[in-house]
Amino acid sequence: MKLLVAAVGTRMPPWAEEAFAEFAKRMPRELPLELKEIKAEPRSGGKSVEALLAAEAGRIRAALPARSRVAALDERGADLSTQQLAARLRQWMETGDDVAFVIGGPDGLAPDFKAAAAEIFGDRNAAHPRFDELMGLLLSSMRGVALTYAFESRDPTTDPNLLTWRRLARQMLEVGDHRKAMR
User: What count of other Cβ atoms lies within 10 Å of the Cβ of residue 3?
Assistant: First the structure.
Protein backbone atom coordinates (compact mmCIF):
# COMPACT_ATOMS: atom_id res chain seq x y z
CA MET A 1 0.00 0.00 0.00
CA LYS A 2 1.18 3.50 -0.82
CA LEU A 3 -0.07 6.90 0.26
CA LEU A 4 -0.16 9.78 -2.17
CA VAL A 5 -0.88 13.43 -1.54
CA ALA A 6 -2.02 15.00 -4.82
CA ALA A 7 -2.22 18.76 -4.39
CA VAL A 8 -3.25 21.35 -6.95
CA GLY A 9 -0.50 23.93 -6.96
CA THR A 10 3.23 23.97 -7.51
CA ARG A 11 6.27 25.65 -6.06
CA MET A 12 5.73 24.97 -2.39
CA PRO A 13 7.76 27.24 -0.14
CA PRO A 14 10.99 25.62 1.09
CA TRP A 15 9.67 25.20 4.65
CA ALA A 16 6.70 23.19 3.34
CA GLU A 17 8.93 20.99 1.17
CA GLU A 18 11.21 20.34 4.16
CA ALA A 19 8.25 19.55 6.43
CA PHE A 20 6.77 17.12 3.90
CA ALA A 21 10.14 15.43 3.34
CA GLU A 22 10.64 15.03 7.08
CA PHE A 23 7.12 13.63 7.54
CA ALA A 24 7.52 11.23 4.60
CA LYS A 25 10.86 10.03 5.98
CA ARG A 26 9.15 9.07 9.25
CA MET A 27 6.51 6.90 7.58
CA PRO A 28 6.93 3.15 7.99
CA ARG A 29 8.58 1.30 5.10
CA GLU A 30 5.34 -0.55 4.33
CA LEU A 31 3.48 2.77 4.01
CA PRO A 32 5.50 5.08 1.74
CA LEU A 33 4.23 8.62 1.21
CA GLU A 34 4.59 10.55 -2.03
CA LEU A 35 3.65 14.07 -3.07
CA LYS A 36 2.41 14.95 -6.55
CA GLU A 37 1.94 18.60 -7.33
CA ILE A 38 -0.76 19.21 -9.93
CA LYS A 39 -0.56 22.28 -12.15
CA ALA A 40 -3.35 24.72 -11.33
CA GLU A 41 -5.40 26.08 -14.21
CA PRO A 42 -4.42 29.72 -14.85
CA ARG A 43 -6.92 32.09 -13.28
CA SER A 44 -6.66 34.60 -16.13
CA GLY A 45 -8.50 34.33 -19.42
CA GLY A 46 -12.08 34.66 -18.26
CA LYS A 47 -12.84 30.96 -17.73
CA SER A 48 -15.68 30.13 -15.37
CA VAL A 49 -14.88 28.53 -12.01
CA GLU A 50 -16.59 25.37 -13.27
CA ALA A 51 -14.26 25.22 -16.29
CA LEU A 52 -11.21 25.80 -14.07
CA LEU A 53 -12.24 23.04 -11.67
CA ALA A 54 -12.99 20.64 -14.53
CA ALA A 55 -9.53 21.18 -16.03
CA GLU A 56 -7.86 20.63 -12.65
CA ALA A 57 -9.98 17.52 -12.01
CA GLY A 58 -8.77 16.06 -15.30
CA ARG A 59 -5.14 16.65 -14.31
CA ILE A 60 -5.75 15.12 -10.89
CA ARG A 61 -7.35 12.00 -12.36
CA ALA A 62 -4.43 11.58 -14.77
CA ALA A 63 -1.95 11.76 -11.89
CA LEU A 64 -3.64 9.19 -9.64
CA PRO A 65 -2.64 5.50 -9.61
CA ALA A 66 -5.20 3.24 -11.30
CA ARG A 67 -6.38 1.35 -8.21
CA SER A 68 -6.32 4.12 -5.64
CA ARG A 69 -8.93 4.98 -3.07
CA VAL A 70 -9.53 8.73 -3.32
CA ALA A 71 -9.90 10.74 -0.13
CA ALA A 72 -10.76 14.33 -1.04
CA LEU A 73 -9.82 17.02 1.46
CA ASP A 74 -12.55 19.64 1.63
CA GLU A 75 -13.63 22.04 4.37
CA ARG A 76 -17.09 20.48 4.43
CA GLY A 77 -15.82 16.92 4.79
CA ALA A 78 -15.84 14.63 7.82
CA ASP A 79 -13.97 16.06 10.78
CA LEU A 80 -11.93 13.06 12.02
CA SER A 81 -9.86 12.85 15.17
CA THR A 82 -6.33 11.45 14.95
CA GLN A 83 -7.60 8.18 16.41
CA GLN A 84 -10.40 7.94 13.84
CA LEU A 85 -8.00 8.64 10.98
CA ALA A 86 -5.61 5.98 12.31
CA ALA A 87 -8.46 3.46 12.43
CA ARG A 88 -9.41 4.34 8.85
CA LEU A 89 -5.78 3.92 7.79
CA ARG A 90 -5.70 0.43 9.36
CA GLN A 91 -8.85 -0.49 7.39
CA TRP A 92 -7.27 0.71 4.16
CA MET A 93 -4.10 -1.26 4.85
CA GLU A 94 -6.21 -4.41 5.07
CA THR A 95 -7.56 -3.85 1.55
CA GLY A 96 -4.09 -3.15 0.14
CA ASP A 97 -5.32 -0.38 -2.15
CA ASP A 98 -3.22 2.75 -2.56
CA VAL A 99 -4.82 5.85 -1.02
CA ALA A 100 -4.68 9.27 -2.64
CA PHE A 101 -5.40 12.32 -0.48
CA VAL A 102 -6.45 15.02 -2.93
CA ILE A 103 -6.23 18.73 -2.15
CA GLY A 104 -7.88 21.18 -4.54
CA GLY A 105 -6.59 24.51 -5.74
CA PRO A 106 -7.76 28.04 -4.95
CA ASP A 107 -11.38 27.18 -5.77
CA GLY A 108 -11.37 23.72 -4.20
CA LEU A 109 -12.33 20.55 -6.07
CA ALA A 110 -14.90 20.02 -8.81
CA PRO A 111 -18.26 18.82 -7.40
CA ASP A 112 -18.23 15.71 -9.63
CA PHE A 113 -14.72 14.85 -8.43
CA LYS A 114 -15.81 15.10 -4.80
CA ALA A 115 -18.93 13.05 -5.55
CA ALA A 116 -16.78 10.26 -6.98
CA ALA A 117 -14.34 10.25 -4.03
CA ALA A 118 -14.52 7.30 -1.65
CA GLU A 119 -14.13 9.63 1.34
CA ILE A 120 -14.22 13.37 2.00
CA PHE A 121 -12.29 14.70 4.99
CA GLY A 122 -11.99 18.20 6.30
CA ASP A 123 -12.16 20.54 9.20
CA ARG A 124 -15.53 22.23 9.51
CA ASN A 125 -13.77 25.24 11.02
CA ALA A 126 -12.04 25.73 7.66
CA ALA A 127 -15.38 26.78 6.17
CA HIS A 128 -15.50 29.83 8.44
CA PRO A 129 -15.01 33.03 6.41
CA ARG A 130 -12.11 34.15 8.63
CA PHE A 131 -10.37 30.78 8.86
CA ASP A 132 -7.53 31.85 6.53
CA GLU A 133 -6.85 34.89 8.67
CA LEU A 134 -6.67 32.80 11.82
CA MET A 135 -4.50 30.10 10.23
CA GLY A 136 -2.13 32.69 8.80
CA LEU A 137 -1.77 34.23 12.21
CA LEU A 138 -1.25 30.93 13.98
CA LEU A 139 1.24 29.64 11.43
CA SER A 140 3.25 32.85 11.33
CA SER A 141 3.44 33.19 15.10
CA MET A 142 6.02 31.42 17.19
CA ARG A 143 5.17 28.20 18.98
CA GLY A 144 3.94 28.22 22.51
CA VAL A 145 2.45 31.71 22.45
CA ALA A 146 -0.06 31.83 25.26
CA LEU A 147 -3.41 33.58 25.18
CA THR A 148 -1.94 36.20 27.52
CA TYR A 149 0.06 37.46 24.52
CA ALA A 150 -3.06 39.34 23.47
CA PHE A 151 -3.34 41.20 26.75
CA GLU A 152 0.27 42.06 27.57
CA SER A 153 1.48 45.58 27.04
CA ARG A 154 3.05 45.53 23.57
CA ASP A 155 3.72 48.09 20.90
CA PRO A 156 1.41 47.58 17.88
CA THR A 157 3.89 49.40 15.63
CA THR A 158 6.52 46.71 16.21
CA ASP A 159 4.18 43.72 16.55
CA PRO A 160 2.08 43.32 13.38
CA ASN A 161 -0.05 40.49 14.79
CA LEU A 162 -1.00 42.18 18.05
CA LEU A 163 -4.32 43.71 16.94
CA THR A 164 -5.46 40.47 15.29
CA TRP A 165 -4.51 38.45 18.38
CA ARG A 166 -6.45 40.82 20.61
CA ARG A 167 -9.54 40.82 18.40
CA LEU A 168 -9.63 37.02 18.01
CA ALA A 169 -8.95 36.40 21.69
CA ARG A 170 -11.75 38.72 22.76
CA GLN A 171 -14.19 37.21 20.25
CA MET A 172 -13.42 33.72 21.49
CA LEU A 173 -13.70 34.72 25.12
CA GLU A 174 -17.04 36.44 24.51
CA VAL A 175 -18.51 33.27 23.05
CA GLY A 176 -16.86 31.04 25.62
CA ASP A 177 -16.32 28.08 23.31
CA HIS A 178 -13.73 28.44 20.52
CA ARG A 179 -15.61 26.07 18.21
CA LYS A 180 -18.68 28.30 18.42
CA ALA A 181 -16.52 31.36 17.78
CA MET A 182 -15.17 29.82 14.61
CA ARG A 183 -18.58 29.04 13.13
Answer: 19
CA angle in degrees (0–180, nearest 5) for 46-111-96: 130
Q: Measured between alpha carbons, how far is 76 from 74 in angstroms, rounded to an integer?
A: 5
Q: Are strands 119-121 and 68-78 parallel, antiparallel or unpaired?
A: parallel
The set of residues, in sequence order, having a beta carbon less than 8 Å from that of 99 and lying 6+ positions away, is 1, 2, 3, 4, 68, 69, 71, 89, 92
pLDDT digit string (tens) for 26-37?
A: 888 888 999 999
The fold adopted by the segment(s) 3-124 is Alpha/beta knot (3.40.1280)
Alpha-carbon gap, residue 174 to 82, rounded angstroms: 29
Structural domain boundaries in the chain: 3-124, 131-182
- Give per-residue pLDDT as tens, 75-118: 778 887 778 888 888 888 888 889 999 999 888 999 999 999 99
Closest CA to 111 of 70, 79, 72: 72
Kindly report whether the global pTM for this prediction surpasses the value 0.70. Answer: no
SS3 content of the chain, % helix, strand, coil (to 5): 45, 20, 35
